[in-house]
């Protein structure tokens, strides 16, 4: 069944993906993927391991070439954008990657200053000031500024990477499995941080996650990616009713029951 997207008068779209095809060699990982991301929402992106969640994220932000399809950000077709327009759009998003969240040879402060060096001509003193503000914003202690990634806990690394993603005061943040590898308390604290930032900064959040707790507590809507396509999109209440075998297992299986929901959905 085709999923109805677009023509959404009640919600301003910040990202609109249509018929996206991304592949490596002659193998297409993403094959006709559509997605709408609404302004101010936390959208959780789920799907089987290897389904192409990270590939999609990278294609949306232009780090992987598309074979076909369109990606519109703030109404601008990224393929038709001039270099200056593309740069302006790139300044409006921040990214927390699944792997290599931070440069290991740089301190937390230097990591956060990287995007500023790349995209602004702020003075060293201003960059320093902004970095300290971001460190505070993500709940790290001021002393963390001078530490190297190897000296940080998993949770601190995620927060520092988030601070870097927020360096340019973005409108959108892309997070790829931000709570993976964190203990439940750390993961929950990170989710609450994201929710607070959404409320206070008006951020739009595109979050790839496996974490059922994150999906339940933090996400306004969930997009499920399977077989290279968008399988379903909607609030959790709709996800638990979906009859796709992977969806059933994911949202109503043992893990879901252990997480305390989905028990009555079957
Ligand atoms: N640079 C690459 N070259 C070849 N294949 C890749 C590359 N990056 C990802 N893939 C393949 O694309 C598929 C989707 O990967 P990925 O998006 O990382 O999955 P996930 O949904 O777990 O994030 C996988 O089969 C992966 O092996
Ligand atoms: Mg991935």
Write the layout of secondary structure elements.
Elements (H helix, E strand, L loop, with lengths): L12 E12 L2 E12 L3 E5 L6 H8 L7 E6 L2 E2 L5 H8 L2 E4 L11 H12 L4 H14 L16 H12 L6 E5 L7 H18 L2 E5 L3 H6 L3 E6 L2 E6 L1 H4 L5 H8 L1 H5 L8
Parallel strand pairs: 3-8, 3-9, 6-7, 7-8
Antiparallel strand pairs: 1-2, 1-4, 4-5, 9-10
Bound molecules: adenosine-5'-diphosphate and magnesium ion.
Protein name: ATP-binding cassette domain-containing protein
GO molecular function, one term: ATP binding
InterPro entries: AAA+_ATPase (IPR003593), ABC_transporter-like_ATP-bd (IPR003439), ABC_transporter-like_CS (IPR017871), P-loop_NTPase (IPR027417)
Average pLDDT over all residues: 92
Tell me the span between the first and last alpha carbons: 21 Å
User: H/E element string?
Assistant: EEEHEEHEHHHEHEHEEHHH
The class by helix and strand makeup works out as alpha/beta
Strand neighbour order, sheet with most strands = 6-7-8-3-9-10
Largest sheet: number of strands, sense, barrel closure: 6 strands, mixed
Radius of gyration: 19 Å
Strand content: 15-25%
Number of helices: 10
Question: Fraction of residues in helices?
Answer: 25-40%
Low-pLDDT regions: none
Bound small molecules, deduplicated? adenosine-5'-diphosphate, magnesium ion
Total beta-strand segments = 10
Globally, the shape reads globular
């Amino acid at each position: 069944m085709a999923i109805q997207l677009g023509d959404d008068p009640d919600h301003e779209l910040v990202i609109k993906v249509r018929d996206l095809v991304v592949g490596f060699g002659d193998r297409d990982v993403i094959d006709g993927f559509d997605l709408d991301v609404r302004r101010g929402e936390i959208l959780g992106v789920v799907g089987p391991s290897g389904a192409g969640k990270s590939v999609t994220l990278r294609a949306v932000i232009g780090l992987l070439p598309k074979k076909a399809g369109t990606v519109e950000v703030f109404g601008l077709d990224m393929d038709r954008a001039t270099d200056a327009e593309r740069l302006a759009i790139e300044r409006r998003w921040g990214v927390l990657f699944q792997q290599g969240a931070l440069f290991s040879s740089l301190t937390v402060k230097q990591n956060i200053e990287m995007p500023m060096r790349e995209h602004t001509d702020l003075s060293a003193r201003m960059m320093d000031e902004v970095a300290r503000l971001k460190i505070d914003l993500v709940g790290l202690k001021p002393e963390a500024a001078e530490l190297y990634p190897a000296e940080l806990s998993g949770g601190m690394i995620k927060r520092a990477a988030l601070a870097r993603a927020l360096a340019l005061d973005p409108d959108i943040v892309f997070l790829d499995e931000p709570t993976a590898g964190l203990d439940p308390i750390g993961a929950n604290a990170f989710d609450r941080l994201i929710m607070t930032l959404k409320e206070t900064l008006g951020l739009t959040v595109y979050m790839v996650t496996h974490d059922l707790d994150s999906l339940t507590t933090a996400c306004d809507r969930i997009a499920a990616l399977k077989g290279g396509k968008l399988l379903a999109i909607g609030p959790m209440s709709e996800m638990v009713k979906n009859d796709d075998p992977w969806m059933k297992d994911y949202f109503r299986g043992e893990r879901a029951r252990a997480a305390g929901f989905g028990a009555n959905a079957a």
